Amino acid sequence: MAKRILWAFVLLSAVIGIAVAMDRMQVESQNRQVEMVFDLASAQQLAAVSDQELSQVLRALADAGVHSAAVLPRTVAEYGVAGRRIPDPIHGFWQDNHQYRELLSVQPVGFWEEDLEAVADAGLGVVPRIGNPPWDQEQMWEQAAVYDPHLVVFGGRQAPGYPDQLQQTAEKLAELGAYAGVVEFAAQQGIEAIAQSDRAVRVHGITAPEMRRLSPERVIARYMRAVRERNIRVLYLRGFVDEPADWDRTLQLVDTLSLSLTEEGYGLGFAAPFSQWSVSRAVLWTAWLGLAAATALFIGLWWVLPFPGELVLAGLVWIGIALVSLYDLRLAQTGAALAAAVIFPSLAVVRFPYLPGPRLRLMAETIAVSLAGALIVTVSLSDTDFMIKLSEFRGVKLMHVAPVAFAAVYGLFWRQVPVRRCALVVRRGEALWNQKVAVKHLILGAAAAGIGFVYLQRTGNFGLPVMEWEIQMREMLERVLLARPRSKELFLGHPALWLAGLSQGRWSWWLPLAAIGQLSLVNSFTHIHTPLLVSGLRTLYGLILGLILGWLLELIWKRTKGWWAYDRIVRLFRVR
After folding, report:
1. pLDDT of residue 91
2. What is the mean pLDDT of residues 305-328?
3. Contact 127/149 with Cβ under 8 angstroms?
4. pLDDT band, residue 493 (cuts 50/70/90)
5. What value does the mean pLDDT take over residues 35-50?
6. Distance, CA of 565 to chain centre
7. Does residue 89 fall inside a structural domain?
8. Is the peptide bond before 308 cis (omega within 30 degrees of 0)?
9. What is the structure's pLDDT at 422?
10. 264 and 303 within one domain
């Protein structure tokens, strides 16, 4: 009876998640305009290398679809080379700190009037780039204000005014009436104190060194992926600038990018923020009933809780989350999302051997539990701040490790759980501790640890680099499918889930690998900056293709299992 009540709460939360997801898709569909901003310094290099006037280059870029140009303030070194007078306060700072002259020489002083005028005369919007030099920036703000910029992009690792003058920067930005450009992957310190979700747009750029390495096709694919999959609405462009022919390559790049955007239904123009969107605390609290219920159900798989123990436990978990939300709503949202991302895939995989019925039904129920977790994550992170990554989901490493670890540990003790007497678990633990281990198992264990290390390092944005062949495979899948399925779901997790079905009613060591597919499924929906339709299609493709691959692997194994009958040393090719 208690379990039915708890599963009813999970179902209720999933229904709420569907309603919230539909609302979010409507918000995402309303913002389809993309702005292309060209770097003025790159345009100046193009003019020099192609022997053209800067005005010709800028007008040609405007005709190709560029709407704005980003202007950087000139540095101390550039002022010195040009023989221009540095303002007295900055010059005094330079004199007082001459021991740091190499560092200070690259710090910005102010905009040159001819740079700003060249952009305006070409009919392009002026986008100032303002950094965080160790002196007052009042002059830069005043120069920018003359040209009424609609967008300001902050450069460097620190937002202007960091650490103790961020409020003044926010006020300057408000006085301009400009949007803040939040640069993707820049991790700028203090940006959250300046950029508000109703006055901010996300920016994706490719650095000058990368432009020298990447082909035009790869550049376009990267920009399109940023727009399509990460809600980027400002593309920061640079040109190929090494030889005269690069001007034609750059113009063709911009033309092709403009065409690609319009063909996918995006408009070209000045970018605008996403609409303000969030859900009420009442909706969050109701959705978190399902999280509390799933937590109790998961613990019930490990420990026998006599009636009404599971209901009491679920109630305590729910009250705890609700109290945290009254103290700090953002903390409760991110904490609940992380809990759901760990609990639901773990629950889905651990209960797999106990599900009745044919294999397809087993897999359907397992996937349904994970999808319920994905919907609760969607509700928990329902806010525009998450959509533009001013606030982020935390705990990526934990959610990629915990479900796999739970599945593996449960496999060691699955005949002793749920626990009624601790003595049985202690006895099993002692037996495992004292068990003799063959050298071959040590070798396989070391190999598994190495694979696990690589797997963990590949999570997140800044781990091990992706190999070239994998990049090409991903881009091929992007061209063929509307949304590329995740590799660990397609090639590992979902095939393992299919093969685990061969051990119906018993524990299978394919299940820890299957947990990777389920946690990855939920993880896709923690990326709130990814449009929900893209996450849904990615999940659907991964499930269909991954299970088909598992079915093919089963057929291959059945046809060739006789070949492995003599593998009595390693016994590597045993499915069960």
Report:
1. 76
2. 91
3. yes
4. very high
5. 94
6. 45
7. no
8. yes
9. 64
10. no
Residue 356 lies in a domain: yes
Could you tell me if 323 and 195 lie in one domain? no
Which residue range forms the structural domain that includes residue 330?
2-25+276-564
pLDDT digits (tens, 9 = 90+) for 266-277: 999 999 999 999
570 φ/ψ angles, rounded to the nearest 5 degrees: -90, -35
Contact 529/202 with Cβ under 8 angstroms? yes
Residue 237 lies in a domain: no
What is the mean pLDDT of the segment spanning 65-71? 95
CA distance 241 to 222: 19
Q: At what angle do helices 396-413 and 511-524 cross, to 10 degrees?
A: 150
Cα–Cα distance for residue pair 370/16, rounded to 1 Å: 15
Q: Which segment of 68-82, 94-108, 297-311 scores lowest on mean pLDDT? A: 94-108
Most confident of 338-347, 398-407, 429-438, 448-457: 338-347
Q: Please tell me the predicted confidence (pLDDT) of residue 290.
A: 96
Specify whether 264 is located in the same domain as 348: no
Considering the domain boundaries, does residue 390 fall inside one? yes
Tokens matching residue 34: 């993309």
Question: How many separate domains does the chain show?
Answer: 2
Q: Residue 505: is its pLDDT beyond 90?
A: no
What amino acid is encoded at 574 in this protein? R
Mean pLDDT of 313-322: 94
For residues 16 and 2, give the distance between their C-alpha atoms in angstroms, rounded to a whole number: 22
* Residues 157 and 291 grouped into a single domain: no
d(CA 65, CA 257): 9
* 406 plus 555 within the same structural domain: yes
266 and 67 Cβ atoms separated by less than 8 Å = no
Q: If DSSP codes are grouped into helix, strand and coil, which group holds residue 131?
A: coil
Is residue 79 helix, strand or coil?
A: helix
Report residue 353 as tokens: 């051997």
Of 268, 294, 317, the position where a domain reaches its end is 268
Q: Which structure tokens are listed for 47?
A: 């003019």
206 and 303 share one domain = no
237: closest CA among 489, 67, 460, 465? 67
In single-letter form, the type of residue at position 4 comes to R
498 CB-side CA count, 13 A: 21
pLDDT attached to residue 439: 61
**Do 201 and 307 have their domain in common?**
no
Looking at the fold, whether 288 and 402 belong to one and the same domain comes out as yes
Helix (H, G, I), strand (E, B) or coil at 71: strand
113-121 and 40-49 are packed helices; what angle lies between their axes, rounded to 10 degrees?
A: 80
Where does a domain end: 268, 296, 326? Answer: 268
Average pLDDT, the chain: 86
The enclosing H or E element of 202 equals strand 200-205
The pTM for the full model equals 0.87
